[in-house]
Write a sequence for this structure.
C-alpha cells in the first residue's frame, strides 16, 4: 500500500447513479484518498452498479468480475447492490456490498479495508465536491426514490419512496456549482415533477428568503443564477404546465424530458402509467402554443407484454402526430422482481427489437425534418469540446450525452463552457452544422 491510499472507481448507469458516485468521490478526496485511473495503481476498487434492466445487470456483474480479476479488492454499491444475494452468488470474493445512495455505508467499508491516511480537516476539497462531469455542466439531484409503482420498474424497491432534498440545500449546492464555473445545471431525480410532494411543499429558506419545496419555485430561484437550467425525468403531472411560462420567459431552458413510455390506453394501464394519447397531444399542443421554442424529449418501450401490432401502430401514429424533437426507445426487457413479468402475451425478443427499430426509424425521419427547418437560423450554443477539427457544442434543445450536437468546423477559438452565437447551415438526422456569427451579423435574439 502506498503512503497515500488510492481508490479506483467504476460508475455505471444513469445520471442519478453518477450523482451518487460524485458524493462518494467527494468524501474520498476529502479524507485524503487518491482516485486512481487504473486498476493496477489502486489499493481497492469501488464499482457503482446499475440494475434497471437485465442488460444493465449483466454489464454490472461483468464490471465487478473485471475489477476482481485486475485488482482483487472490490466494494460494490449502486442499484444492483439492493440484490446483494445475486452479487454474492456471482462474486463471493467482493469485500462488501451496499445499495443505492449509500455513501455512508461505502465509506465505512473503505475505512475497514483501507484506513484513511489523515485528518480530513487538514486538506482542501473544492466546495462543489468531486464531479464526474466536465467543469461546465453538472447534474443536480433534487430528490431520491419514487412513489410510483410502474409494472416494468423496480426502482422504488431499489431506492425507496420519494424523499425530496430541502430546497435550501439544493440551492446552496447550485450556488457552489455556479461559483465553480458551471454554466448548465441539469435537474435530475426519479420523478422530478414530484419534487416536494412528500414534504407537503413546505417552505424552506435560502439567502434569507422563503422558497417553497416545489419544482416551479425551485426553478424560479435557480433562474437567478444566470445559467442554463434543464429539466430531466419530468412525469407529466398537470403541474408541469406551470413550468412552461418560465421557459417562455427564458428563465429556464425550453426543454422537457417527459418519459411517456407508450400512447395506447390499455398498454399504459398495464404499465400502471396514467394519461392517454389524446390528452397528451392536447397538452403538447398547449405547451408549444405557450412556448414555441420548446424542445420535447421522451422515451418509449416497445414489445411490452400483451402489446399487439395494432397497439404498436397506434404508438407510431402518436409519434407522427406529436412530432417530438428527441426520442429514445427500449425493447421491453424483463427485470427480476417487476410485476410486468407476470403479464401474458410477451412478444418474442426479435419482434420487440424489430418494433424498437421501426419506432426509431420513424423518429429519425421526424428528427431530420425538424432539424432541417433550423437551417438558416441563428442560435446560442454551449461549447462542450474543442479539437484541431473544430468545436462540438449544444443548443438549448440538446442535453449532454443523449441528444444531438452542433458541429462547428474549422474554428477553435473557444473553450469548453463558452457560449457562442452561430448560424446553422446544414443538418442531418440528429446533428446541426454551424458557423460562428461574425460581429455585426447577429440577429435580434
Amino acid at each position: 500500500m502506498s503512503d497515500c491510499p488510492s481508490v479506483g472507481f467504476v460508475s455505471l448507469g444513469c445520471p442519478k447513479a453518477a450523482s451518487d458516485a460524485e458524493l462518494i468521490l467527494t468524501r474520498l478526496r476529502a479524507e485524503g484518498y487518491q482516485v486512481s485511473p487504473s486498476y493496477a495503481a489502486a489499493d481497492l476498487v469501488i464499482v457503482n452498479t446499475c440494475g434497471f434492466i437485465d442488460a444493465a445487470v449483466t454489464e454490472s456483474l461483468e464490471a465487478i468480475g473485471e475489477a476482481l480479476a485486475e485488482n482483487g479488492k472490490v466494494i460494490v454499491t449502486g442499484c444492483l447492490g439492493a440484490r446483494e444475494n445475486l452479487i454474492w452468488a456471482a462474486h463471493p470474493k467482493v469485500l462488501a456490498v451496499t445499495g443505492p445512495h449509500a455513501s455512508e455505508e461505502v465509506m465505512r467499508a473503505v475505512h475497514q479495508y483501507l484506513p484513511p491516511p489523515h485528518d480530513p480537516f487538514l486538506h482542501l476539497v473544492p466546495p462543489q465536491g468531486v464531479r464526474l462531469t466536465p467543469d461546465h455542466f453538472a447534474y443536480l439531484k433534487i430528490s431520491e426514490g419514487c412513489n410510483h409503482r410502474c409494472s416494468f420498474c423496480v426502482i422504488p424497491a431499489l431506492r425507496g419512496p420519494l424523499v425530496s432534498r430541502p430546497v435550501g440545500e439544493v440551492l446552496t449546492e447550485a450556488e457552489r456549482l455556479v461559483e465553480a464555473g458551471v454554466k448548465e445545471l441539469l435537474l435530475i431525480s426519479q420523478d422530478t415533477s414530484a419534487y416536494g410532494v412528500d414534504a407537503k411543499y413546505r417552505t424552506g429558506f435560502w439567502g434569507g428568503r422563503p422558497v417553497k419545496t416545489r419544482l416551479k419555485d425551485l426553478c424560479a430561484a435557480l433562474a437567478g443564477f444566470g445559467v442554463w437550467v434543464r429539466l430531466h425525468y419530468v412525469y407529466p403531472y398537470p403541474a408541469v404546465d406551470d413550468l412552461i411560462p418560465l421557459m417562455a420567459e427564458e428563465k429556464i431552458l425550453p426543454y422537457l424530458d417527459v418519459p411517456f413510455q407508450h400512447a395506447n390506453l390499455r398498454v399504459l394501464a398495464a404499465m400502471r402509467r396514467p394519461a392517454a394519447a389524446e390528452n397528451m397531444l392536447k397538452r403538447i399542443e398547449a405547451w408549444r402554443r405557450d412556448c414555441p421554442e420548446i424542445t420535447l424529449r421522451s422515451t418509449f418501450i416497445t414489445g411490452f407484454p400483451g402489446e399487439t401490432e395494432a397497439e404498436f401502430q397506434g404508438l407510431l401514429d402518436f409519434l407522427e402526430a406529436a412530432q417530438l424533437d428527441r426520442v429514445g426507445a427500449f425493447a421491453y426487457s424483463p427485470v427480476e422482481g417487476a410485476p410486468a413479468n407476470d403479464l401474458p402475451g410477451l412478444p418474442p425478443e426479435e419482434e420487440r427489437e424489430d418494433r424498437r427499430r421501426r419506432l426509431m426509424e420513424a423518429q429519425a425521419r421526424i428528427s431530420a425534418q425538424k432539424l432541417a427547418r433550423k437551417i438558416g437560423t441563428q442560435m446560442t450554443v454551449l461549447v462542450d469540446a474543442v479539437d484541431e477539427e473544430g468545436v462540438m457544442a449544444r443548443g438549448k434543445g440538446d442535453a449532454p450525452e443523449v441528444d444531438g450536437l452542433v458541429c462547428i468546423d474549422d474554428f477553435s477559438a473557444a473553450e469548453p463552457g463558452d457560449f457562442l452565437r452561430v448560424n446553422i447551415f446544414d443538418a442531418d438526422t440528429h446533428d446541426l452544422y454551424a458557423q460562428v456569427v461574425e460581429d455585426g451579423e447577429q440577429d435580434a435574439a
In short: The chain has twelve helices and 20 strands.
